[in-house]
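Hi there,

I know you've been waiting on this one. I reran it after we fixed the sequence typo, so this is the corrected version. Both the input and the resulting structure follow.
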Amino acid sequence: MTKIKLKKGDLVKVIAGNSRGREGKILDIDTDKYRAFVEGVNIVHKHTKPNQKTPKGGIVKKEASVHLSNLMILDPNGGAPTRIGRSVDEKSGRLVRISKKSGEAIK
């Protein structure tokens, strides 16, 4: 597996698949399967049995996972999809993620 450059909370855009063009925040990342759950993207209908949380049961809409290769992080400056690089910060001496388009640090 390759290194995962995306993190929980990043604003991403879907570049392939049924949800192509949609944007959202990463809610969770499954590192074993190399997939992410993105807010408002790849919505599926889940049929649930009655339980204490949902006494009636029924159909619940929820996000399904998207493969990380279908996501690109949004540039902090322009908001366009960009690739991610890494460089050493001058002040702290730590590695930071940078946008390949603008060169800005990604927080």
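Quick highlight: The chain is about 0% helix and 45% strand.

Best,
R. S.
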